[in-house]
């Protein structure tokens, strides 16, 4: 192999590593890369400005990163976040770049089958699902109609999928309220904001509370009936 060939091989390997790290969501310093690859900072600046010009990149405070304008592009870091949120990462011994590469490669037959029992009823109101989701993100109060009852100024915290059922967990009249998603027939934004309480977020991280969701309304009704004085 000629010296020229070796030079281009090193450059190709360097660019492949840089691209991989960019798609991992990393911010790359030219100074640090110069020491790692033992090339000049000038060479690396040329890499980013010319050889990687096909990518939309941002340069801030001495570091290059994948631009947020790469709409539809998801980095490995995004995929790892999704895996953690959905607990998919708990299915594998380790969730790393090698596994992500296999999972997202549609040119090969997947070596895995993950069989999950589907919900008894798929959520039927896509519009309501999205309005609740957006309200959780924006911390916006909702008017929610569930099982024929109107909850005005409902503060939504989380949509929780447990035991084949979706639940909306939040606060109403400063009390914890749980609604079965398929019982919700109406969702209206109020354009009013709410402040999340740490107590509720901590409760949602408690496994015992999550396990109680299917029985929450029943227990609430029993406690309400017990607290109501009965006439002799």
**Per DSSP, what share of the residues sits in E-state strands of 2 or more residues?**
15-25%
Q: Report the order of strands and helices.
A: HEHHEEHHHEEEEEHHH
- Uncertain regions: pLDDT < 50 for 5+ in a row? none
Largest sheet: 5 strands, antiparallel
Count of the separate structural domains: 3
Secondary-structure blueprint of this entry?
Layout: H1 3-23, E1 28-29, H2 30-37, H3 41-51, E2 57-60, E3 63-66, H4 76-85, H5 97-103, H6 126-138, E4 140-146, E5 149-162, E6 165-172, E7 175-180, E8 184-193, H7 198-204, H8 207-212, H9 216-227
Antiparallel strand pairs: 1-3, 2-3, 4-5, 4-8, 5-6, 6-7
Describe this protein with a few key phrases.
232 residues, alpha+beta, Arc Repressor Mutant, subunit A, SH3 type barrels, 3-stranded antiparallel β-sheet, 8 strands
What would your notes on this structure say?
- There is one protein chain.
- With 232 residues, the protein is of the alpha+beta class.
- The protein has three domains: 3-66, Winged helix-like DNA-binding domain superfamily/Winged helix DNA-binding domain (Arc Repressor Mutant, subunit A); 74-116, no CATH class; 126-227, SH3 type barrels (Roll).
- The chain has nine helices and eight strands.
- The strands form two sheets. The protein has a five-stranded antiparallel sheet with strand order 7-6-5-4-8. The chain has a three-stranded antiparallel sheet with strand order 1-3-2.
- The mean pLDDT is 84.
